[in-house]
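User: Fold this; tokens only.

Assistant: Input:
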Amino acid sequence: MLSPSLTHGGRLAEARRLFPQAPEPFIDLSTGISPVSYPVPPLPDQAWTRLPEPDEIAALEAIAARIYGVADPSMVVAAPGTQSLISLIAGLMPQRCVAILSPTYGEYARAFGLRGSRVIEVDGLDWLGDARAVVLCNPNNPDGRRLKATAILETLRAQRVEGLVVVDESFADLEDEALSLAPHLPQPGMVVLRSLSKTYGLGGLRLGFAIAAPDLAALMRASLGSWPVSGPAILIGMQALADHAWLAAARQRLGQDVMRLDAMLHQAGLRIVGGTHLFRLAESEQAPELFHRLGRAGILVRPFDYRRDWLRFGVPGSEDEWQRLADALA
């Protein structure tokens, strides 16, 4: 019996309870967080001992604005991860009806549903019913669906969407720049979310950004309070965002790694449905059995309660992990 908590990535403690005889260390391929981690620099003591200054947070937001192609730094809001922003937006801007381009990250439906919104799942932006608020992930999680920024804007105008539009670009850093809506902002009611934690392999850092028109950004910033991110997150985030060479090298390595993963999954009889530089979505009628076989081998992948024939595979980070995955799939 699959624990419901394992349909959300990163639950190694639950995986160990389900597979108590699995060899250690457990390999976590369930999250979509990059296995190529940014090298954390030495930090001054004051990063830990002092509260962050407003000017330091503003400097981080200014660097993020430059990297994401945003003209006005006041449009960028630093936050402790995009997950916190999802709940914040749903609470600040409750909607009567929200259309979510699905299947996608389940926390959006949960967050808006908890605030009393009627959530409808749609498979395209050309039919939104009576919803005037829209949520989409680009690239999408879990299938990697991509939409160009200009195509999104044209479709939203044609559909006369006048309410809230949330575009989650958490997996966009390693993809084609043409899909990002950040350089096209401000747009009425539109919020773009970006994640540093996933791309830079620093899930524990909890750092993400919301990008919106200045008045909406100011509302989110005020709601997050005076110290939305930690001192260490500010310093590490500033250095990582400005390190263009590291990001280019990570993109090249991960591009090669996902091709290697595709070949391995194909050889094991799985069909590749989609993905990004950070994960692959595979399909098989034997997916439930394969999930348990991998778990008994100490490898956690992401199952789906709404598609039992799907498994999402993150990218192994070392040759030992690659070999263990190959052995478990064989």
